[in-house]
Every structure is written in structure tokens, then in C-alpha cells.
UniProtKB/TrEMBL annotation:
The lineage of its organism: Bacteria, Pseudomonadati, Bacteroidota, Flavobacteriia, Flavobacteriales. The gene is pyrF. It comes from the Bacteria. Pathway: Pyrimidine metabolism; UMP biosynthesis via de novo pathway; UMP from orotate: step 2/2. This is Orotidine-5'-phosphate decarboxylase. GO terms for molecular function: orotidine-5'-phosphate decarboxylase activity. PANTHER family: OROTIDINE 5'-PHOSPHATE DECARBOXYLASE. It comes from Tenacibaculum geojense. SUPFAM superfamilies: Ribulose-phoshate binding barrel. SMART domains: OMPdecase. Residues 16-254 form the Orotidine 5'-phosphate decarboxylase domain. The keyword Lyase applies.
């Protein structure tokens, strides 16, 4: 999916909501455990109930890898279902990969070619040759970890080297990499006060913003400082939507919470 197609879908749905499909089988309705594939059954119900309210889905691959080959098969069925039934939806493999060139090429093939995700999250710590193999794929996006929403972000990302914070160095350096126009960036909603300076460095790129909802990020603040002329934001909510209920009404409850966020986004867009 191209950036323009994503922008068009945001305007069509009046939403820039991304729903995280981070499935813990200990938190889903117990009746689903009787299904042949509880994770996919859960995901399918959530997707069918919320697809008209969001523009993206983001499975965190750890929640699938934890269950071995069966979990990976659930991930494959989930992405195939989205791509075939709702091809207008943007998909993000939240895998946080990043390794030396040949290895990164194989990671990129896994997510872009085999699973046909539109994007994948990548850690920048190993530098250019670990990221450019992802950027080489046409009409695919590499979402670079820039300033994350967790407390440990302050351990390294905001530390200064030669009077500049590390995350700013990451942003500036990444702009020089080949096919940098395919970059998006992760910036946590809990770091809203940083958005203004971030936008001065990368005014045009999309930002994937976790941390709204369960982690306490504020949607209005993020939009005030982070939105650009092309909207430029994907606001992710995971637990606050998919675990709105652990009863038989879980999909309806998820849709209700997604609708509340979408309505806020529509007001902001208008």
C-alpha cells in the first residue's frame, strides 16, 4: 500500500486508528479455547467488528511466536484474512527486527513477501546496513523505533551525546539512508511534549503512536503537536480495544471502544 492510499483511506473513514492485535489466550473468552484456532477466531471476530472504524491493524509478533508453529500459523491466517477480505486496511508487523544486511533481507522477505504485510517495525541500533534492506521494498514501509512509550526509553533514547538526544540523531541520520521516503517512525503517545521538535526534523513522515488508552497517552495532545498536512499519524490502541470484554460480547465491546476513538478522530479531522 502506498502512502497516498493510506492517506485516502484516513479521509474516507475519518479515522487514523490502528488496532493492535496482541492476543494473549489467557485474556480471551474461555469458550474460544474450544476452537481449533482460538487466536485466529478471536482476531477474525475483532476484525469483522472494527474494520470500518480503523485504517490499520498491528499484530505484535511476540504474541504469536510465543505459541510456536501454531501461533505463527494463526498470524499467517490473520494477515491473509485481512488482505483478502479488507484489502483497504494497512497492516503492520510489529516485529522490531534489525540485524546485519543479509539477515535483515531475510526478515524483510518474511514479512513483505511471504506474509504480505505493508510495513514492519525495525530497531535502528545497528545502523544503516541493518535498515536499508527493508527500505528496498517498493510500496512497503519500514517503521523505525524513534522515541518509544515505555519508561525505559529514558535509559538511552533521550540521553545526550555531544549535546543532542540519541533519538534526534536517529531521526536525522535515518533521513540520509537510501529510500528514506519509505520510513515511518514509532513515537510514543506518552512522550507528547516531544512531538513538536520531532516534527521539525521529520515534518512529512507518518508516525505510529502507541500508548493512547491503557498507557495514558492523550489523543488531543498528540494531534496538536504531531499532526501534519497529510494527517501523518497512526494512533494505536491494543488492550483498550481488544480486551474491552472477556465475555461473549467481546467483539461488540471492542467495536464500541474503537467507535469512541474514531469519533474523537473525526472531530479532530473536521
Amino acid at each position: 500500500m502506498t502512502t497516498q492510499q493510506l492517506i485516502d483511506e484516513i479521509h474516507r473513514k475519518k479515522s487514523f486508528l490502528c488496532i493492535g492485535l496482541d492476543v494473549d489466550i489467557n485474556k480471551i473468552p474461555k469458550r474460544l479455547l474450544l476452537e481449533e484456532d482460538p487466536i485466529f477466531t478471536f482476531n477474525k471476530a475483532i476484525i469483522d467488528a472494527t474494520h470500518h472504524l480503523c485504517v490499520a491493524y498491528k499484530p505484535n509478533t511476540a504474541f504469536y511466536e510465543a505459541y510456536g508453529i501454531k501461533g505463527w500459523q494463526s498470524l499467517e491466517k490473520t494477515i491473509n484474512y485481512i488482505n483478502h477480505k479488507y484489502p483497504e486496511i494497512y497492516t503492520i508487523a510489529d516485529a522490531k527486527r534489525g540485524d546485519i544486511g543479509n539477515t535483515s533481507t531475510m526478515y524483510a522477505k518474511a514479512f513483505f513477501e511471504d506474509l504480505s504485510f505493508d510495513s514492519v517495525t525495525v530497531a535502528p541500533y545497528m545502523g544503516k546496513d541493518s535498515v536499508e534492506p527493508f527500505l528496498a521494498f517498493e510500496d512497503k514501509h519500514t517503521i523505525l523505533l524513534a522515541l518509544t512509550s515505555n519508561q525505559g526509553a529514558f535509559d538511552f533514547q533521550t540521553q545526550k551525546i555531544d549535546s543532542e538526544e540519541v533519538y534526534k540523531t536517529v531521526l536525522k541520520t535515518s533521513k540520509t539512508w537510501k529510500n528514506a521516503h519509505n520510513l515511518m517512525y514509532v513515537v510514543g503517545a506518552t512522550k507528547a511534549k516531544y512531538f513538536k521538535e520531532i516534527r521539525q526534523i521529520i515534518p512529512d513522515n507518518f508516525l505510529l503512536v502507541p500508548g493512547v488508552g491503557a498507557q495514558g497517552g492523550n489523543l488531543e495532545e498528540v494531534c496538536k503537536y504531531g499532526m501534519n498536512d497529510s494527517i501523518g499519524l497512526l494512533i494505536n490502541s491494543s488492550r483498550g480495544i481488544i480486551y474491552a470484554s472477556n465475555e461473549d460480547d467481546f467483539a461488540e465491546a471492542a467495536a464500541k471502544n474503537a467507535q469512541q476513538l474514531q469519533a474523537q478522530m473525526q472531530t479532530i479531522l473536521e
